[in-house]
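Researcher: Here's a chain I'd like modeled. Treat it as a single chain, no partners, no ligands.
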Amino acid sequence: NFPGVVQNNGIEVQINTLNIRGKRFSWKSNFNFTMSRNKLVEFPGLSTSSYAQRYIIGKPLNLYIGAKFAGVDPATGVYQFYDKDKNLTFSPSEADYSYAGTTDPKFYGGFSNSITYRNWELSFLFDYRRQMGLHPIYSVPSLVGDAINRPEAVLDRWQLPNDLKPYQRFTQTYGTAGVAIYPLFNSDAVLTDASFVKLRNLSLSYSLSALKIKKKEINRIELFLQAQNLFVITNYKGPDPETQRVRSLPPLRRIAIGGKLSL
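Model: Modeled as a single isolated chain. C-alpha cells:
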C-alpha cells in the first residue's frame, strides 16, 4: 500500500532418504532447509515521507533502525552510544540512527527420522533456525523497579566506578540513567543471537497384534511415549529463543505415556 518496489527471493530444499530397509529394521529420514530474503528496491520520496525512519533502500522490510550501542560507561554506570560522528553520548538523536539488523531468519528447517525394529518404532523431529532475536533485557523499554518481571541477569549491574558490567546502575528517578533507557530500546543492543536447535517431537511405541486372551481376539495393543519440546540448544539468554518473550512462559515440555487397545 505504498509506492515501493520489494524484491523477494529464496531457496527451499527437501531431501527424503530411505537409509535402511530390511525385514526387521528400517530407517528413513527427512531434511528440509529454507533460506529467504526480501529488500526494498525502490521507494520514491522515502526520505521525506512518514516511512523515513521505518525503511531503508536495499534493506529488509522487517528491520531495526537505531543508534550504535557502546555499553555501560564505567565512570558513571549509564548506557552510552555512538553518534553519527562516532562520539560517545548518553542521548543520541534520530540523526545518529542507522540500520541495526533484522529478526528475519537467515535460514531455518527441520530434520526428522523414523526408525522401526520388530515391534518398536522411534521417531523424532529437530527444528533449527539461524536468526537474530530480541534481547531479553535491552529490548524492554522500562526501568528496573517497574511492575514487571525481570530476568535474574539484571543483577549483574554497574555499582561502583570502574565496574565493567553489561547493565547500567539501578535508578529510582528519570535522571541520566533513566533517560538512557529509551535510546537503548532504539539501538542495535536490542538484537542478539537467538539461533537454536530444538527437539520438537519424540515418539516411542511398542505394538503387538492378533492376540487371543481368554477367547477374546485383540487386533492390536500399542504402548507409547510421546514428548514435545524436550530440550533446546542455544546461546540465547532469555527463556526461549523461539518466542523471545520475557513476560510469558516459553513452550512447555510435555510428556505423555499411554496405550491403545483395538478389538
